[in-house]
Amino acid sequence: MKWDKRKKSLWNYLKENRQIRQSLLLAAFALVLTVCASAKTAMAYFTTYASAGGRAQISLGFTRTETEDTVSDWTKHIAVANSGEQECYARVKVLVGEQYKDSLLYTAEDGWRLEDTDGYWYYNKILAPQEKTSELLVKLERSMLSGMTQAEEQKVFNVIVVPEYTAVLYDEDGNPYADWSLTVAGEVE
User: Fold this and answer.
1) Longest dimension (CA), the chain
2) How far apart are CA 165 and CA 82, in angstroms?
3) What is the CA radius of gyration of the chain?
4) What span, in angstroms and rounded, lies between the C-alpha atoms of 160 and 119?
5) pLDDT per position in the chain (189 positions), as tens?
6) Given 1, 90, 107, 152, which is the most exposed site by the fewest CB atoms within 10 A?
């Protein structure tokens, strides 16, 4: 019996012809069976695992810094100490009242540089664990304070040090660099 698509639909033709219907069902079953049989190897590919024995201690080694600042003779002595377990880069920002900005004198010892774009003082060297930076000195010119009593001078003048640090990162060639978008605020003593 041949199917004439002008006379009957395919569905009606299959309902009437049992042998073709059984052949199609058998082919569909074989296809499903083949897919199921190959699924086992495909699942093995996606679920492969490896196991190992023994123990290993992993330490993330966090970095921490502490800022030491002392004042003597109208000069603030600023240094940053790495009290953590990893190397880091350090920077500080010095904030004062608007009326004192032009009266500050900075003396940067070895390693410090001022970045004009953001106002931070950067320590160029890598700060190893338990190491301390050289001092950054911030001195207020006394000439601008003429006419004030000592109580007024101490009440009005205040230098705020904002320390930050970032972990040392290495590029693909092994060169160290600092990513200042990943900064952490240091602690002030």
Assistant:
1) 120
2) 9
3) 37
4) 13
5) 565 655 667 667 777 777 777 888 889 889 888 877 777 666 666 666 666 677 766 666 677 888 888 888 888 899 999 988 889 999 999 988 877 777 888 898 889 999 888 889 999 999 999 999 999 999 887 666 555 656 555 555 678 898 999 889 899 999 999 998 887 765 555
6) 1
Residues 6+ apart with CB under 8 A from 106: 94, 114, 121, 136, 137, 138, 139
Start-to-end CA distance of the chain, whole Å, equals 98
Which of 89, 137, 130 has the alpha carbon at shortest distance from 110? 137
